[in-house]
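The pair is set out directly below:
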Amino acid sequence: MGGWRCAPVVGRTPRHRRRSQHRPRERGQSAWEIATKHRLGKLGTAGPLLDRLLDYLADQGFVELGVSIRHGHRAGALPGPHRDPFDRMLLAQAQVEGLALVSNEAAFDRYGVERLW
C-alpha cells in the first residue's frame, strides 16, 4: 500500500451523474481506515482531520454512501490477490454504483473502475 488512498469517491459516470447531480460521495470505510491507521500510529497527523471530518465533508458538499449487502457481496467475491478489506470495499462500491475512485493506487486499475489521480 503506497501513499494516501483514503480519498472520497466522486461520481463520474453518466448513470451516477443522473442520480446524484454531481454530488461527490464519501464512504464510511474511508473514515474507518483513517481512524484505524491513526490509532495504530501510521497516520500520526490525522487527529485534526478526524476531529473535523464530518464538518469538512459537509462543507464540501459530500453525501454519505453506506455499505449495502450488494457492496459486501461484491467485495467478498472480487477476484485477485488484493487482500486489504478497505480497498476491496472501495472497489466493490465503485463497481456496483458506477463511481470513480479518487486514489493513487495503480493496483485498482485491474478491477475496471475509473480512477482519478
